[in-house]
Structures are given as C-alpha cells and as structure tokens.
Fold this sequence. Notes:
α6 packs across α7. By secondary structure, the protein is α+β, with helices and mostly antiparallel strands. The N terminus is likely disordered. A four-stranded mixed β-sheet has the order 6-9-8-7, with no helix packed on it. A hairpin with a 3-residue loop joins β8 and β9. Helix content is 32%, strand content 12%.
Amino acid sequence: MSAHSARRRWRRPLLVAAAAASIAVPSVAFATDSATDHRPADAGARTPVQALDDTYYQDAIGKTGPELKAALHTIISDQTKLSYDQVWDALKKTDEDPANASNVILLYTGRSQSKDTNGGNPDEWNREHVWAKSHGDFGTSTGPGTDVHHLRPTDVSVNSTRGNKDFDNGGEELSEAPGNFTDDDSYEPRDQVKGDVARMILYMAVRYDGEDGFADLEPNDEVNNGSAPAIGRLSVLKQWNDEDPPDDFEKRRNQVIFDEIQHNRNPFIDHPEWVAEIWK
C-alpha cells in the first residue's frame, strides 16, 4: 500500500461479522461436525475431511513446507479444464444463492442477483479473476484464466474498481460496495469474504507452478506487482485466512467444483491450517 495511504486497524472480529451477515447459507454435508457431538473420534463415522485425508489427500498427510506444497500441487493438478465460455454456466452452479436457486451471490457486494443478468453492462455481473489475470499475463486462456476456484461473479463496476490491484488493508470505502475499501495500489474486500479471497489466491500459487506453459504464480508481501506473476500482500492474506475461516457457502462451492465441474479441490478450504505450514 502506498506510503501516503491511511492505515486502518482491523475493524471487528470476523467471526462476529460473519454471524451478522445478511446472506444466510444452509448447513451442507461438508460442514464441520456439530459442537453437540461429543463422541470420541474413533467411535463413529469418519468426518468428510477425515475421509478425504484417507483418499484424496493421502499423499500430503504428514508433510510440511515445500514437500506439502509439492504434494498438493500434484494432487490438485488432476482436473478437468474449462473454456472461458463454460465459466459462465459453472459460476451459476458454484455461486448459486442457497435461498434462491435463480440467483448467484456476488463476491464483493454480497448481493443476490439473477443468474440471467450476466454480461458487461453496469449492474450486471461478470467473471472476476481473483488472482488478477495480468499478474502473470495468462489472460482468459484455458488454465489459470478459466480455473473456477478463483473465478467469481462480481458486479461489473465493482470488478472494474478492483481491477488488477493487489490485496491489502486500507483505503476509501466503496459507496457501491460497503465494507470494501480501495486505494491506488490495493483492494480490501468485505470481512465476510476475506478468508475466501486469501484461500483462492493461495490455491492458485500451489496449482500453477510454471508448468503447462504458464507462469509460476507466487504470493509476496508487496503491492504494485504489476504484470509480475505475483500478488500480495501475503502477510495480510495469512491474517485473513486465520480470522475468516471457511463457512458453509465456501465449503459447498468447493464440493460443487469437485463433484460437478473440475473434479479438484481447494485444499485450504478443507485444511486452512496448511497455509501456515507452507508459508511460515
């Protein structure tokens, strides 16, 4: 963030903010076990995450640091790839409003909007590359440019305001998207999706490591990364991951992508603690 930008302290505990969010999401099969279930771990069925550890993540369990990152890269690189046109229909599934199957939830505003209002005009929604596609210059080519783990429906003008800025705390609040802040070189999303943004960025850093003809994407602790295959600010993304853990909407989205679309997972939604194991 530029030196002249005013710094703001963390505004409120994110768990409180999440509880106050106006968007209700239902419990899904992949949600965390109920706090009222006091059975010993070996006394009943395996949790969904434990089942994934026994199967999908089995080659990553017990690893840390670069070995964990390399194992996860191998695991999540086994995926179905989409064209950019196919992303429209994919987002209508992944980001469907649990309270209204005709709508999607927009990432930065949190607004529920008709699936049919996608496009490029003001107040329509379009396809936001959370890892800005100019950071590594991958465009909309099949691969990182069409990976729905980091593509989200967003309001057209809010998407334009975010542009290709890095992520950080601070700036002026957006009148069109209260709770979002921006300045000359960074963007801060609303509290309810800060962790989502962090986990999408870090997924991209593990998935795309210089193979397949694309750049090696890596987070760093800077802003103003321009067209370099880097995005920041890593220390802030790690904080967001810790303070805004995966909610039911994010978990459901991960499951839909796995079951119906790309058939790979964002490991940091299943195991948020792996962020600290890789980026120490």
